[in-house]
Design brief:
The complex is a heterodimer of chains A (123) and B (248).
Chain A lengths: L3 E3 L6 H7 L1 H6 L8 E2 L19 H13 L55
Chain B lengths: L1 E9 L20 E5 L2 E8 L7 H15 L5 E2 L4 E3 L2 H10 L1 H11 L2 E10 L1 H11 L1 H12 L5 H30 L5 E4 L8 E8 L3 H14 L4 E9 L16
Antiparallel strand pairs in B: 1-3, 1-4, 1-5, 2-3, 6-8, 6-9, 7-8
Classes of the chains: A mainly alpha (123), B alpha+beta (248).
Amino acid sequence: MSVMTTGGSGGSAAGALYDVIELILDRGLVIDVFVRVSLVGIEVLTIDARVVVASIDTYLRFAEKCGRLDLTGGRQPMGLPDLVGAVTGGGAERQVKGALPGPREAIAETLEGLATPDKTSDR
Amino acid sequence: MSTYVYGFAPATHPMPIDGLTGVGAERAPVRLIREDGLVAVVSDAPEGLRAKRRDLEAHERVLESLCAAGTVMPMRFGMVASDDATVQAELTSKAEKYADLLAKLNDHVELNVKGVHDEDALLGDLLQRHAELRERNDALRAVGGGDEQDRIAFGEQVSAAVEERRVQEAKRLVAQLESHATRVRLGPSVEGCFVNASFLVANSDREAFDAAVTALRDAANGYADVRVFGPLPPYSFVEVDGADEADG
């Protein structure tokens, strides 16, 4: 397969397929007058975001992990960088450069129902 | 015999289908149905085809081969028409809409980005930044973990903070990358990933996009793993009648 993956172990055809399996199964064009073939035993790791409820097991796991973390000596704050500034509170200040050409739609407050309007190509 | 459909393309697509095989145990040869300035990429599907992993692979392989040579609108996996005439009728009935969509996809690829937090790094950072979490954690440690009720309550607080961070960072990741893309669409939620976002990127923007991903990955080193998959057939950008905003 020619799918290239970066920053990970991707390489085998099966692995590459699995990385984007939710797109092949849940995206793509659907034609009403066509029939959808049933699938046999394919595990899909997608979850319905609307019904995700963290379980008691998750809470206990978090509590246990936090209890075991070695926080002595402090840590550098971590996180993904904001667009117009350094890593939030980060020790290693990084300016992620990149002009923002043209008007952009603001990101919705919640991620559900994020609209994807076509942007005018002004490049 | 039914007709399995992989995707639609403009009639001008070179369609290098020689030797290309598709779904089914017999790996039926890929063939074309032409109608109204469009071409459908199909193969014979046995009746009652029940798809397996090898069929998913075939579907993706056919599309990737053809996307390398030109613009193709991919079908969702598993689309079967009762016969060729049904496919022709579909092309005819929406010829203009499909042509418009193909024009928008021209010279673009889909790149899918998934982010996964290193859980220990994330929890450590949350404890660092949220005094009330840190203090509660310390208090529980002081009593050897505390009883189950206390741990569940604390874990629930941590979980809320984790969720907040995931949402925040998904937005940040999208914000960093979308300026290099023509369109963005969130993918279905995937277990363990704080973000699953697909970007429709013009070929001329790919270098800048890749550089932005690299910068993001470097900034997140040790804290989150950011992975890019593609170029992919543009599964996420083929809605015909308006954006499918409910998904993701």
